[in-house]
């Protein structure tokens, strides 16, 4: 028997999911994260999961890991001290940036501009220049380069980034600087923009390369340490890390290109939701991942998550492919408050966090949170996880009463309902960002809800969006780890061309795509993926000539068959996307800016779990009845144990379905059908779709 392991490290907990590849049976463990050394929590969780399964750690063939090491290094400002080498005249490229100021009118007055990841005193200029066509305009002055590198060495830099003008067209000068740095700065890791991001636009290429250098030493140390500890513990399987775009790369590749790991955590959730939705038979869906502090949402079409070309972490925005995830500051710990000037109820983005946490946790928290409102309304029973967790309902009521007093509402329950309504609207706004504002009707999609708090609010979000069914996966609190364990190896190769369509032919573009595919596939081959199990997906960033932005468009390589239909198909696809996004098209020449080839390895052969079949009657899983507050009145709801539900059971609302890591609320007028894969499918009672 062989097992694959999914590992997701969060800020509070580390989730482990061990999967029997033959049966699909899963074993999970949740341990406290260890920020000082994440590998400690990871190893502890692996040991617990193996104990639960009764298997030795030596039977683990693959460890697939979603990590926040790179993310935390950026958010906490703990990246390496980075030196930056630029072309003569471009020393202040990071300071000039894009002149973007967040906030409303006059936001520039109060906005504290973040410090660049490479300080100006650690930035040097070297003589030498490449033209936009790749030709050498000025030869590289190697003596000048050595002098500048010695200056950086004296200043104590810990990592070096090199971003020279137009290096995407010709990396010759950057590679020579790297060779010289090996002599002048021995042991200092080097990030080249021509390798990290060989694309147009100097600022985006530079900031992405600098970010890569800033987190590279920390990620490399963590990966090496984790690999060593896995070997010492008897795990001989390979270690792979989840990228921001939902694909896997080997530990060595991840250590060299950590900028691609900045959204590793949220990507795992979207990947896990894709696996779950596929088992339930819904290829098009929205994801809704609600935790304690924030909610992440994304849109998936045809079991393929939509990806963006930018990744944002805190104040940092880099040019790196990632799942198009939008985040809003709404979670179980979000604090409700009433500003004195407006007297209008607000929820978040401030959060009570894990310590002291919501008042209901009885750990010292006194401010009213979303969790407290759910307790007051009865949506969260006071005894959870078989009695292992007890919530203080009196403390929750006392906290929410402050909102009732401040707003003049007639009851604590009315105040709690207001808190829930507002946080639901906040999350609905995030879902609109990835659906309506992108030209997609959410009513054409299902909604997959997960995270510790997601299933509690999912039914309400289904009503707001019209997205049915609402799918609640098994073990929704560890779905990110499931996503880590059920995705595939991936690599991407990119080239900037900047060519108008009338300057290209189908044959010339196909040759470029083929070359990029070969490069991406070679990386997978080096990681042991057989060539006959690889497949390649192509895309291009297009615009109308004269536009200042591009739209990514999928490229169907089969249309480039020599009959002249390739560019025509690409033109039509771009016009369709432009019409969907902006409601118009232009009678202007099309221009291709960047092309990509993404090589995919095979999906893991993990058997899908299947529940024992039963009839529609869920009463064997009914454990108690409980009063909850819904739409201005108290009603009686059944409390069900999810572990006792069987395939085919239909749970009528109002109902509360409990499990170890989450609680699902089924509202009146809705039912939750149990799918054979274990997911709950929530729908209005007047909806008659097949499972």
Automatic annotation (TrEMBL):
Query: What is the originating organism of this protein?
Result: Micromonospora arida
Domain Acetophenone carboxylase-like C-terminal: residue ranges: 506-671
UniProt xrefs under Pfam families? Hydant_A_C (PF19278), Hydant_A_N (PF05378), Hydantoinase_A (PF01968)
- The name of this protein is 5-oxoprolinase
Every Hydantoinase/oxoprolinase N-terminal domain range:
4-184
**Gene Ontology CC annotations of this record:** cytosol
Q: Where is the Hydantoinase A/oxoprolinase domain?
A: 205-491
Q: Which GO terms describe its biological process?
A: glutathione metabolic process
């Amino acid at each position: 028997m062989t097992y694959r392991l999914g590992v997701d490290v969060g800020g509070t907990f580390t989730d482990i999911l061990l999967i029997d590849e033959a049966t699909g049976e899963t074993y999970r463990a949740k341990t406290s994260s260890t920020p000082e050394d994440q590998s400690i929590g990871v190893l502890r969780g692996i040991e617990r999961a193996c104990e639960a399964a009764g298997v030795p750690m030596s039977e683990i063939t693959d460890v697939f890991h979603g990590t926040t090491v790179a993310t935390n290094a950026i958010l906490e400002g703990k990246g390496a001290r980075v030196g930056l080498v630029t072309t003569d005249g471009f020393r202040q490229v990071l300071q000039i940036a894009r002149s973007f100021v967040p906030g409303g009118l006059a936001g520039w007055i109060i906005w504290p501009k973040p410090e660049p990841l490479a300080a100006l005193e650690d930035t040097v200029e070297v003589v030498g220049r490449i033209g936009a066509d790749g030709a050498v305009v000025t030869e590289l002055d190697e003596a000048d380069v050595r002098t500048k590198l010695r200056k950086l060495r004296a200043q104590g830099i810990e990592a070096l980034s090199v971003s020279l003008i137009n290096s995407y067209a010709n990396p010759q000068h950057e590679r020579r600087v790297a060779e010289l740095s090996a002599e002048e700065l021995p042991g200092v890791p080097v990030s080249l923009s021509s390798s990290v991001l060989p694309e147009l636009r100097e600022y985006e290429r530079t900031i992405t390369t600098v970010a890569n250098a800033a987190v590279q030493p920390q990620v490399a140390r963590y990966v090496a340490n984790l690999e060593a500890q896995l070997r010492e513990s008897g795990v001989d399987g390979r270690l792979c890390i989840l990228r921001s775009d939902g694909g896997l790369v080997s530990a060595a590749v991840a250590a060299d290109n950590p900028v691609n790991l900045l959204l590793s955590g949220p990507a795992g959730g979207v990947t896990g939701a894709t696996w779950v939705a596929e088992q339930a038979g819904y290829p098009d869906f929205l994801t809704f991942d609600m935790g304690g502090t924030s909610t992440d949402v994304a849109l998936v079409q045809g079991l393929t998550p939509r990806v963006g070309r930018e990744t944002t972490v805190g104040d940092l925005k880099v040019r790196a492919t990632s799942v198009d995830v939008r985040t809003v500051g709404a979670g179980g710990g979000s604090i409700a408050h009433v500003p004195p000037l407006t007297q209008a109820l607000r929820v978040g983005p401030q959060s009570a966090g894990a310590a002291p946490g919501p008042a209901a946790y009885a750990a010292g928290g006194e401010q009213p949170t979303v969790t407290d409102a759910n307790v007051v309304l009865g949506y969260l029973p006071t005894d959870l996880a078989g009695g292992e967790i007890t919530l203080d309902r009196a403390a929750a009521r006392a906290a929410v009463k402050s909102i009732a007093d401040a707003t003049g509402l007639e009851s604590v329950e009315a105040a709690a309902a207001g808190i829930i309504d507002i946080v639901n609207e906040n999350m609905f706004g995030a879902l609109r960002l990835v659906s309506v504002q992108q030209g997609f009707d959410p009513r054409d999609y299902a909604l997959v809800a997960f995270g510790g708090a997601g299933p509690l609010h999912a039914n309400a979000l289904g009503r707001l969006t019209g997205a049915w069914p609402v799918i609640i996966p098994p073990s929704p609190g560890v779905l990110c780890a499931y996503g880590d364990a059920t995705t595939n190896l991936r690599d991407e190769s990119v080239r900037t061309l900047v060519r108008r369509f009338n300057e290209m032919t189908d044959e010339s573009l196909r040759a470029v795509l083929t070359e990029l595919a070969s490069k991406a596939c070679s990386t997978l081959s080096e990681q042991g993926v057989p060539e006959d199990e690889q497949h390649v997906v192509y895309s291009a960033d297009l615009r109308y000539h004269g536009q200042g932005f591009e739209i990514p468009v999928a490229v169907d390589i089969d249309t480039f068959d020599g009959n002249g239909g390739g560019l025509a198909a690409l033109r039509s696809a771009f016009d369709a996307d432009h019409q969907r996004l902006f409601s118009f098209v232009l009678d202007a020449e099309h221009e291709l800016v960047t092309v990509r080839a993404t090589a995919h390895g095979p999906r893991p052969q993990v058997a899908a779990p299947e529940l024992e079949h039963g009839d529609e009657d869920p009463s064997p899983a009914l454990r108690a009845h409980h009063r909850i507050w819904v739409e201005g009145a108290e009603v009686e709801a059944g409390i069900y144990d999810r572990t006792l539900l069987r395939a085919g059971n239909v749970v009528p609302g109002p109902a509360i379905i409990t499990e170890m890591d989450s609680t699902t609320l089924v509202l009146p007028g809705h039912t939750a059908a149990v799918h054979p894969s274990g997911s709950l499918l929530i729908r209005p009672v007047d909806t008659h779709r097949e499972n």
